[in-house]
Amino acid sequence: GGSPLSCLSCVEVKMTTARYRPTWELAVDPLVSCKLCLGEFPLEQMTTITQCQCVFCTLCLKQYVELLIKEGLETAISCPDSACPKRGHLQENEIECMVAAEMMQRYKKLQFEREVLLDPCRTWCPSSSCQAVCQLKETDSPALPQLVQCAVCALEFCSACKAAWHPGQACQESSPPIASFLPGENRNEEDDAPIKRCPKCKVYIERDEGCAQMMCKNCKHAFCWYCLESLDDDFLLIHYDKGPCRNKLGHSRASVIWHRTQVVGIFAGFGLLLLVASPFLLLATPIVLCCKCKCSKGDDDPLPT
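That's the RBR-type E3 ubiquitin transferase sequence above. Prediction below.
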């Protein structure tokens, strides 16, 4: 019941109440600064690392994670803030939310390789055509050499130096890589194996594409992919001019010549700069020494009275 006027008044009151919002609800959401790109973004475009609570824009953090996974530099991805007080790391579920499926698969592969490398009871088969994980016998001294037989290719090797098993003989520091061939295989197939060990630090390296000049990301050792010979001092890549690796660099002859021209040009430029600057340095040396002597003499003079 009730009069139409009273009902109309109630409707007006309700409409007025619905339109009213407190001033604090109308305030603009604050922007958060990203420490990587120094940009300011709304909170929904930011990502907080659970372990240390550091906040970065999602795009920057995604690019940072993808770069580390592509380079394979580390498996425990740390907080990009070098001054992070808690030294936090990104958890696996956080990484999985940022990167694509194939990138996540590569990350898990790097993690597994790291686990095997640090596990004293597991090791990789040294044959580049196998690359299986072999189990070692549990002993009180796991560092002592022991016979390991790969369950996949049946290769027998030493657990310490990864060379062919040598009972009664000491391990050699620089053992040649073990090659195991299946029936019908030849040396060319071994050369083209996609995974090999660094001849210096023994870390496994995968070659997807590119030239035969390789550099280990772990120890920065440069070597030839085919024969594993050192290229640390071979700036001009003379190694690929003769021998079994001739013309196997993977670049055209013109690009090799251009590379050598650049290297020679850099050294020649430094030499020319030193040659031109040396007379000026010789002339300037007496002047500098004279000024220095005058300054020291002036400091020793007594103050005027």
